[in-house]
UniProtKB/TrEMBL annotation:
Residues 710-913 form the DNA-directed DNA polymerase family A palm domain. This is DNA polymerase I. The gene is polA. Residues 341-536 form the 3'-5' exonuclease domain. Single-chain monomer with multiple functions. It catalyses: DNA(n) + a 2'-deoxyribonucleoside 5'-triphosphate = DNA(n+1) + diphosphate. In addition to polymerase activity, this DNA polymerase exhibits 3'-5' and 5'-3' exonuclease activity. InterPro entries: 3'-5'_exonuclease_dom, 5-3_exonucl_a-hlix_arch_N, 5-3_exonuclease, 5-3_exonuclease_C_sf, DNA-dir_DNA_pol_A_CS, DNA-dir_DNA_pol_A_palm_dom, DNA/RNA_pol_sf, DNA_polI_H3TH. It comes from Rhodobacter xanthinilyticus. GO terms for biological process: DNA-templated DNA replication; double-strand break repair. Pfam families: 5_3_exonuc, 5_3_exonuc_N, DNA_pol_A, DNA_pol_A_exo1. Its EC number is 2.7.7.7.
Length: 953
């Protein structure tokens, strides 16, 4: 049938379909050989739905599915960096690309791609030809780049939302009609495709300029007329870059086509061909639906792994609403039977298990060791699980003498030689075709890395739980097992005891260790089977796949690298702190009028409340007055109690120095690893609800930076010989995110112009000029700026600034009057949390708020946490994304990433490469939000270098 007037052409954006299917579904594998087919399953279901829906008076007469041929096109010749920021396709998606082409042909739909051109160019060419022939065109895609084609008989359809995109919708998106979309895109650029555009000009500004001047060339020719000096200079300086950007975003509508338009006539699928393909892919549910539609017999197929995946693909393709991620009803599985677990003690037994693991394509792994310190722990054994109830333990380092604390150093009989077992395990644990499953996989990665094994690929059930249920409960294996599997694991204390009689795991008899260790692997596998299909309905796939899981090997490498510490510097500081404490103790005794034990809350309380008569003292169950930091902070601002205020202030100073001494200058020396000569902190990915990393053993996140003494501790963290420490720190990232999400015009413009945000706030609030501002006024504004993010109260601000509460509350009230957008953001966030039970970051991280509707004292805290979580969580997302991208970015440099401390990354780099490292790392950090979120304020990273962390920061 010749294409002409009255014909209707459907152009399906196949590349978009593939990625949408991949990210929306759990990873499914073909049962027979473990081939990844999750994206193919979703893609095939979408095509079948399309065929079912493509009927009626407006049905297409012609159709085609369009794909990208490769990542390189003619645009790379125009601008070599085009799409350079895009990460490579996931490993498990790559083998599915050709299968989606096969699926398209199996459904008897034309499958088109052209070397050197993007799918969008082919769509533009076909749309032009169809329009010139007098027909209509519907482009089935939501891609904004295709919106320049809308109009004159061409429309778009967002199939997932069933929303038609016409000229009005284009104006809503870009602020201009379809004919001027490329002008706006050329100005605004595109961080996803690395189209440079005009620096500092976003979509809204670009639309305003184009609407004012008519088109891009007119705007550039009249750039001198623009009143805003920065905008004017940008258009003048970057005119050629903007023109190049326009060439990049303009679709080529005369691309060479592999077929003629007339040949795209709709044809029904051939049932035998389609059934053969679906049979080969082992898509059980879809095969039955196709068989029913065409009246043919459906073959019997094995289930796709994991169970239920094909059904999930069908529901998703049909647009069914996702289920709530509450604890699901488990499919019947083998009951837990620890007596059925086995010990693997021979090469032949282990080889059989590993052969079965290759056949399954999935293997749960867990290690048993002598310590929680991964850098010092000795490997005792490895447990494996292939299916629910099918688990085993490989004992490797159990000592003779059983659970005798002072037993023999000799190995117990019946164990494989460790080197032999690890040599057999290594190929499977490193095999890309076998997915390893773990609970808190970072620990096992480090243990096995010390034995020369790099485990990949893997899934982590702890992080799956964290991505879905952050804020609802803990993510340890025992809690998850009881909550989601209704099974209480064997307590570790039953094997190793507690207190002084506690033994290490190598002293546990092998027969007792088998049940405990194999059960861990069995539980982990069952949790994975439960959690994996839940990720997509819980809208947690993106966070898990782009932040949580890929961060594991990054942190493992950082932790194993460790940071050099100069113990002589710590010793000198410890002595200096001891002297300062002694001086403060003398001062405190003088203020109190008598000497007393400053470290005794009981004695301090008696002096403050009984002898000095400070009102409001409250005794606890022990009969002693409460003298916590909050109580003392209140006393420092209390009117009519000048002596008590001085005493409370001095005690707070003493406590701060005492904590620095005990927690850092004394304790850090004990954390030095004798083998490496470095301190190796451990980061908890799931330690904070908002996504912030927590640091333990030692905790390097809480080194104070506000006091001079706290900052000095960083002097002890030093570079090795011939090396330098480099620090890169996000500047006021949480305020920048607040300005974006709360839409605060004054703050956004200040950040764009590089204005001192705290001075600007002080000027706005207190009506004082920025020039020559009193540092005290700026300090007050800074305290409010950061305090607001955490929902600070008048009491809290009074403590921070040590001013009367009424004055502090007045500052806060005036702040909200000056920046009403912040109050609006807070009210909207609380309302959202109350309605949905969670809040969400810009990147899709959900933080549940189960206490948001509580009454009483906890209500205020829950509201403050809900207000802060999207801000702090988004900042955490940004630095996680930067850390995930960093290893590849700095791979060619003699540098290692060592530490993450809140918004700061610390590196160790050869002395001659510091400039290159700072430039590269800054680029990664400042671009970390893209392409997921286009912030309306720039991210700025401050960098420095030095012989120590203190010098670099």
């Amino acid at each position: 049938m010749a294409f002409g007037k009255g014909c209707h052409l459907h152009l399906i954006d196949g590349s978009a379909f593939i990625f949408r299917a991949y990210h929306a579904l759990p990873p499914l594998t073909r049962k027979s050989d473990g081939l990844p087919v999750g994206a193919v399953a979703g893609f095939a279901n979408m095509l079948f739905k399309y065929i079912e829906d493509a009927s009626g008076p407006d049905a297409p007469t012609h159709a085609a599915v369009i794909f990208d041929h490769s990542s390189k096109t003619f645009r790379n010749e125009i601008y070599p960096a085009y799409k350079a920021n895009r990460p490579p396709a996931p490993e498990d998606l790559r083998p599915q690309f050709p299968l989606t082409r096969e699926a398209t042909r199996a459904f008897n739909l034309p499958c088109l791609e052209t070397e050197g051109f993007e799918a969008d160019d082919i769509i533009a060419t076909l749309a032009r030809e169809a329009r010139e022939a007098g027909g209509r065109v519907t482009i089935i895609s939501s891609d904004k780049d295709l919106m320049q084609l809308v109009g004159g008989g061409v429309e778009m359809l967002d199939a997932m939302k069933n929303k038609v995109i016409g000229p009005d919708e284009v104006v809503e998106k870009f602020g201009v009609g379809p004919e001027r979309v490329i002008d706006v895109q050329a100005l605004a650029g595109d961080s996803v495709d690395n189209v440079p555009g005009a620096p500092g000009i976003g979509l809204k500004t670009a639309a305003l300029l184009i609407n004012e001047y008519g088109d891009l060339e007119t705007l550039l020719a009249r750039a001198e007329e623009i009143k805003q000096p920065k905008r004017r200079q940008t258009l003048i300086d970057f005119a050629e870059q903007i023109r190049v950007s326009k060439r990049l975003v303009t679709l080529e509508d005369h691309a060479p086509l592999p077929v003629a338009l007339d040949s795209l006539e709709i044809r029904d699928p051939e049932p035998e061909v389609l059934m053969n393909f679906l049979n080969e892919m082992e898509f059980r549910t879809l095969t039955k639906r196709v068989a029913d539609k065409f009246g043919v017999a459906a073959p019997t197929l094995p289930a796709i792994a994991p169970g239920g995946g094909a059904d999930a693909a069908e529901r998703w393709a049909r647009g069914a609403a996702p289920a709530a991620p509450a604890a699901p009803v488990a499919a019947p599985e083998a009951p837990f039977d620890t007596a059925a677990y086995t010990a693997i003690s021979t090469r032949e037994e282990l080889a059989r298990w590993l052969e079965a693991a290759r056949a399954e394509g999935v293997l749960a792994v867990d290690t048993e060791t002598t310590s929680l310190d991964e850098m010092r722990a000795e490997l005792v054994g490895v447990s494996l699980a292939l299916a629910p109830g099918r688990a085993a333990y490989i004992p490797l380092g159990h000592r003779a003498g059983g659970d005798d604390l002072f037993g023999s150093a000799e190995l117990a009989p019946g164990q494989m030689p460790m080197e032999e077992a690890l040599a057999l395990l290594k190929p499977v644990l490193e095999d890309d075709s076998v997915l390893k499953i773990g609970q808190n996989m970072k620990y096992d990665l480090k243990i096995l890395a010390r034995h020369g094994i790099r485990v990949a690929p893997f899934d982590d059930t702890m992080l799956m739980s964290y991505a879905m249920f952050s804020g609802l409960h803990g993510h340890g294996m025992d809690e998850l097992s009881e909550r989601y599997l209704d099974h209480r694991p064997i307590p570790i204390k039953e094997l190793i005891g507690s207190g002084k009689s506690q033994i290490t795991f190598d002293r546990v008899p092998v027969d007792k260790a088998v049940a405990y260790a194999a059960e861990d692997a069995d539980i982990t596998l069952r949790l994975w089977r439960r959690f994996r299909p839940m990720l997509a309905p819980a809208r947690a796939t993106t966070i898990y796949e782009t932040e949580e899981r890929p961060l594991v090997p990054v942190l493992a490498e950082m932790e194993m690298a460790g940071v050099r510490v100069d113990t002589s510097v710590l010793a000198r500081m410890s002595n200096a702190f001891a002297q300062k404490m002694a001086g403060l103790e003398a001062e405190i005794a003088e203020i109190a009028g008598q000497p007393f034990n400053v470290g005794s809350p009981k004695q301090l309380g008696e002096i403050l409340f009984d002898q000095m008569g400070v009102p409001g003292g409250q005794k606890g169950k022990t009969g002693a007055y409460g003298t916590g930091a909050d109580v003392l902070e209140d006393i420092t601002t209390m009117e009519g109690q000048p002596v008590a205020a001085r005493l409370a202030s001095a005690v707070l100073d003493w406590r701060a120095i005492s904590k620095l001494k005990s927690t850092y200058t004394d304790a850090l020396q004990g954390h030095l690893n004798p083998e490496t000569g470095r301190v190796h902190t451990s980061y908890s990915i799931a330690g904070a609800n908002t996504g912030r990393l927590a640091s333990t053993d030692p905790n390097l996140q809480n080194i104070p930076v506000r006091s001079e003494e706290g900052r000095r501790i960083r002097e002890a963290f030093v570079a090795g010989p011939g090396m330098r420490i480099v620090s890169l720190d996000y500047s006021q990232i949480e305020l920048r995110i607040l300005a974006h999400v709360a839409d605060l015009p004054e703050m956004k413009e200040a950040f764009r112009q590089g204005v001192d945000i705290h001075a600007m706030t002080a000027s706005e609030m207190f009506g004082v000029p920025v020039e020559g501002m009193d540092p005290g006024v700026r300090r007050q504004a800074k305290a409010i700026n950061f305090g607001v993010i955490y929902g600070i109260s008048g009491f809290g601000l009074a403590r921070n600034l040590r001013i009367p509460r009424a004055e502090a509350q007045g500052f806060i009230d005036r702040y909200f009057e000056r920046f009403p957008g912040i109050r609006r953001y807070m009210d909207d966030t609380i309302a959202f949390a109350k309605e949905h039970g969670y809040v969400e970051t810009l990147f899709g991280r959900r933080i549940h708020t189960p206490e948001i509707n509580a009454k009483g004292p906890g209500a205020g805290f829950a509201k403050r946490a809900a207000i802060n979580a999207p801000i702090q969580g988004a900042a955490a997302d940004v630095i996680r994304r930067a850390m995930v991208r960093m290893p590849e970015a700095i791979a060619g440099l003699p540098a290692k990433m060592l530490l993450q401390v809140h918004d700061e990354l610390i590196f160790e780099v050869e002395a001659g490469a510091t400039g290159a490292l700072i430039e590269t790392a800054r680029r990664v950090m400042e671009g970390a939000a893209d392409p997921a979120v286009r912030l309306s304020v720039p991210l700025v990273v401050d960098g420095g270098e030095g012989a120590s962390w203190a010098e670099a920061h």
